């Protein structure tokens, strides 16, 4: 976590318009009610009129409005934009700290800015991009060694190990025909694994969720069959729906899904699907809505067991005090998703968030 208590350092960075602090902190000016980047060209406030925030969501929650000159709530830090473009151009490259230094960047700064903005380091993203390359090659039917080399892994064991950590199975067990097929979908918040058959979507999860391999193994058992690599028309429909969602065109993600869990879990998940984009509920409200007002902890556990991220929108459940409580995909994603969905507005009537 960044230190927002060092007022003197932050104020000095504000006066200097220090670009090293872009993406690290924002300043709220109490005399105007506006928050800015520390690099904003506007006239600098007095030190006693400054409040410091980690991100735009925190500044908005405190009642500040975004500056119309520096747009602190729009776009991405230039460092992130530059390196993500470089990664997209060379997805199979084995990026290292030496590469970052060669591009004129301090690796520790890159790591900090990426984690603050995207919840993971640049090198973690690069490793995921390489693994995606290998997955695409395997789906095409390429030999294992070619998939390994395309993914930029020097050893077969390294490729198999990375693949197994993601899927819960080594790659050779996911080749060939299978009732359920897994494929990778890219989103602005990171890669997602979609698992579908010809009729419904069974799983949609961010690739860096720690419980993903366990969830995949459990899904294999529940489905009574092996999970293979590939996609169906349902996968294509899911990808198109996610593109519309993140582009701000449609917040519904109305997809055919298979809910597999206990009766209580399924009741919670169905109620989650009734929360429209742009609205939130507390865990207590959700428990009351399913007729189990004392089962708040059980509701939270059911949220955590959800395997259909975004489609079953567990990110729309918050703490009773309005806080951004736990989300398996990462609190930074939860904040981004809720901020994105505020643009959709409410559909139907729900109680205000508690």
How would you describe this structure to a colleague?
This protein starts with 6 loop residues before the first helix and ends in a 13-residue tail after the last helix. Strands 3-1-2-4 form a four-stranded mixed beta sheet. Among the domains are: 7-66, 3-Layer(aba) Sandwich (DNA Methylphosphotriester Repair Domain), CATH 3.40.10.10; 76-167, Arc Repressor Mutant, subunit A (Orthogonal Bundle). The model is unreliable at 346-354 (pLDDT under 50). The longest helix has 19 residues, at 122-140. The chain is α/β, with parallel strands linked by helices and 354 residues long. Strand 6 and strand 7 form a beta hairpin. It is flat, with a radius of gyration of 22 Å. The protein contains 14 helices and ten strands. Helix 8 crosses helix 9 (212-223).
């Amino acid at each position: 976590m960044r230190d927002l208590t060092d007022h003197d350092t932050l104020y000095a960075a504000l006066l200097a318009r220090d670009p090293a602090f872009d993406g690290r902190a924002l300043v709220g000016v109490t005399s105007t009610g506006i928050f800015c980047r520390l690099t904003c060209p506007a006239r600098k406030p007095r030190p006693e009129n400054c409040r410091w925030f980690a991100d735009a969501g925190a500044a908005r929650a405190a009642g500040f409005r975004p500056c119309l000159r520096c747009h602190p709530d729009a776009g991405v830090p230039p460092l992130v934009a530059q390196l993500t473009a470089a990664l997209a151009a060379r997805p199979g490259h084995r990026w290292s700290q030496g590469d970052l230094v060669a591009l004129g960047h301090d690796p520790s700064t890159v790591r900090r800015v990426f984690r603050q903005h995207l919840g993971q380091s640049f090198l973690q993203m690069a490793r995921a991009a390489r693994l995606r390359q290998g997955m695409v090659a395997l789906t095409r039917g390429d030999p294992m060694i070619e998939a390994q080399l395309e993914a930029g892994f020097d050893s077969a064991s390294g490729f198999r190990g990375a693949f197994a950590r993601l899927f819960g199975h080594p790659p050779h067990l996911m080749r060939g025909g299978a009732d359920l097929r897994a494929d990778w979908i890219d989103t602005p918040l990171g890669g997602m694994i979609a698992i579908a058959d010809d009729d419904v979507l069974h799983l949609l999860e961010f690739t860096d969720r720690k419980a993903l391999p366990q969830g995949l193994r459990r899904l294999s058992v529940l489905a009574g069959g092996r999970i293979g690599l590939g996609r169906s028309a349902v996968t294509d429909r899911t990808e198109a729906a996610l593109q519309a969602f993140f582009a701000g065109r449609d917040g519904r993600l109305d997809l055919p899904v298979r809910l597999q869990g206990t009766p209580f879990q399924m009741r919670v998940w169905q109620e989650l699907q009734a929360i429209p984009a742009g609205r939130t509920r507390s865990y207590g409200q959700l428990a009351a809505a399913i007729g189990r007002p004392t089962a708040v902890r059980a509701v939270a556990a059911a949220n955590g067991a959800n395997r259909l991220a975004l489609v079953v929108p567990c990110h729309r459940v918050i703490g009773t005090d309005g806080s951004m409580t736990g989300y398996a995909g990462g609190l930074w994603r939860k904040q981004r998703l809720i901020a994105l969905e505020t643009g959709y507005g409410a559909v139907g009537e729900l109680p205000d968030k508690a």
